[in-house]
Design a protein that fits this description.
Helix 8 crosses helix 10. The longest helix is centred in the last third of the chain and has 16 residues. The chain has a five-stranded antiparallel sheet with strand order 5-6-10-8-9. It is α+β, with helices and mostly antiparallel strands. Helix content is 34%, strand content 21%. Bound molecules: flavin-adenine dinucleotide, (2R)-2-hydroxypentanedioic acid and zinc ion.
């Protein structure tokens, strides 16, 4: 462990009080390993600021001593961006968790960066409104972390990712200055979009302390439908036809039989037969008088032999059970080891081709792996998880990752659809970003964080951001 600079901890305790500075290694331990157990970090201390003023004081001390700061929310990120690095402090937002009140007139709410997604859902629902981003880590993932990664989730198809839900941000820059833009104005063309810039910045440009979120009206009931099909292209056709029939689709997710079997083994349950088709399209749609007829018409458009089975969840409880087969993929995979975990996006027209070739491609890079593909079909976003490669990283790991990411780019896709770049994908950022774009990004980084203390190594890699 790297030592703190002389006087640093005393200055930090002065700034935050003893409760705000944790140095006990047992208490620090969970902050220093990521959700996947792939990244094991290090830090001088974990800071627990109680409000924005505390964050300002903490950043001033870090700036003065040149100590790196890794902002951390729920630590559910999947690209190794949230754990401390040697000589850094982890700044936990757990105490910045204030909520609301809901501004019903504007359908907005201002929350602390450390508020969990679950808490925001519950608060919005009490006001008859909905916060439309949802993901399986909802109990721990924080709004600050989700803004910092521009998280996607299950309803991007209908509502867009985090970026589309932000009415404003309050954040503390590296030198302790505060930018606060929380009015939530619908129209506001006053120069550079700093809010948009911080969204997806993964803790490298500022520490987000509060967020103004847009809320949407609660729908009536949703209907959940599972359709088992022979080929991925049939799932795409069906989704297109369901939407063309005027059905409002909230989520359109894809799972494969292999993944369902893995979840079944993990949770000890038998899946419904519709989920044992080679591919299952899971749909959450807004219910209404004509929805069953419209769905039936769309199902009829599938070619003979393509539809294997379908199942409608009649109750909320059975809908939750169906969704669990999709949502529990991540934990079921993790129960079998540390996977190569990728979240790629492709043009819709290349999805089937990518999926059809992925097993053989990975097999050539590292024979004998177990490849799991699932994800947000409607967004062109597939999750590729590969089990059976040495979980600690190394040459095999890099080869598998490199092979998949290059294939994605060859097909016109993105190496990160929603999890971000973090430390994990920094070496491959150049596949998607031109030298001119990378140079513009470095210039932005230097302007906002001239001594490179904010989450070093994340997004741009270590060398790229040294002052
Ligand atoms: P952390 O993991 O703590 O941090 C993530 C990044 O944000 C780090 O770089 C960190 O430095 C930075 N950061 C955190 N807080 C702040 C802040 N206040 N200011 C500045 N930077 C900050 N993602 C999706 O997009 N879609 C999904 O469907 C999805 N499903 C998931 C399911 C599971 C089971 C799990 C474990 C993860 C899933 N994720 C998904 C990953 C997703 O990125 C995180 O859940 C979430 O966005 C991160 O929130 P967090 O509070 O845990 O952030
Ligand atoms: C999801 O959609 C998450 O469930 C996690 O983005 C994906 O585990 C993964 O690879
Ligand atoms: Zn996802």
């Amino acid at each position: 462990m790297r030592q703190a600079p002389n006087g640093f901890l005393a200055a930090m305790v002065d700034a935050l009080g003893p409760d705000g500075v944790v140095t006990d290694s047992d208490v620090m331990a969970p902050h220093l390993v990521d959700w996947m157990r792939r990244y094991h970090g290090d830090a001088i201390a974990v800071l627990r600021p109680a409000d924005t003023e505390d964050v300002v004081r903490a950043m001033r001390v870090c700036h003065r001593f040149g100590v790196a700061v890794v902002a951390q929310g729920g630590n559910t990120g999947l690209v190794g961006g949230s754990v401390g690095t040697p000589g850094s402090v982890v700044l936990s937002t757990s105490r910045l968790n204030h909520l609301g009140p809901v501004d019903e007139e504007a359908s907005q709410i201002t929350v602390g960066a450390g508020a969990t997604l679950d808490a925001v859902h519950v608060t919005a629902a009490h006001a008859g409104l909905r916060f439309p981003v949802d993901l399986a880590a909802r109990g721990s993932a924080t709004i600050g972390g989700m803004v910092a990664t521009n998280a996607g989730g299950l309803s991007v198809l209908r509502f867009g990712p985090m970026r589309a839900q932000i009415g404003g941000i309050e954040a503390v820059l590296a030198d302790g200055s505060v930018i606060s833009h929380l009015q939530g104005l619908i129209k506001d063309n006053t120069g550079y979009d700093l809010v948009g810039l911080l969204c997806g910045s993964e803790g490298t440009l500022a520490v987000i302390t509060a967020v103004r979120l847009r809320l949407v009206p609660l729908d009536g009931p949703h209907l959940t439908l599972a359709v088992g099909v022979e080929r991925l292209s049939a799932a795409l056709t069906l989704l297109r036809n369901v939407r063309a029939a005027g059905v409002v689709v909230d989520s359109a997710e894809l799972i494969r039989r292999r993944g369902v079997e893995l979840v079944a083994a993990h949770v000890g349950k038998t899946p419904p037969t519709a989920l044992l088709a080679p591919f299952t399209l899971l749909l959450a749609v807004v219910a209404g008088e004509t929805v069953h007829d419209r769905l039936a018409t769309a199902l009829e458009t599938l070619k003979p032999g393509e539809l294997i089975d379908s199942l409608v969840a009649e109750t909320e409880a059975s809908a939750r059970e169906l969704w669990a087969w999709r949502e529990r993929h991540t934990e079921s995979i993790s129960a079998h080891g540390i996977p190569v975990k990728l979240d790629v996006s492709l043009p819709i027209s290349r999805l089937a081709e990518f999926e059809a070739g992925i097993d053989a491609l990975v097999d050539r890079a590292h024979p004998g792996c177990d490849v799991h593909v699932f994800g947000h079909l409607g967004d062109g976003n597939l999750h590729v998880n590969v089990l059976g490669v040495d979980g600690s990283g190394g040459a095999d790991w890099t080869r598998v990752e490199d092979t998949i990411l290059r294939r994605v780019v060859e097909l016109g896709g993105s190496i990160s659809a929603e999890h971000g770049i973090g430390r994990m994908k920094a070496p491959w950022l150049h596949l998607n970003r031109s030298p001119a774009e990378l140079s513009a990004m470095r210039a932005i980084k230097r302007a906002l964080d001239p001594t490179a203390i904010l989450n070093p190594g994340v997004i741009l890699g270590v060398e790229a951001v040294e002052p």
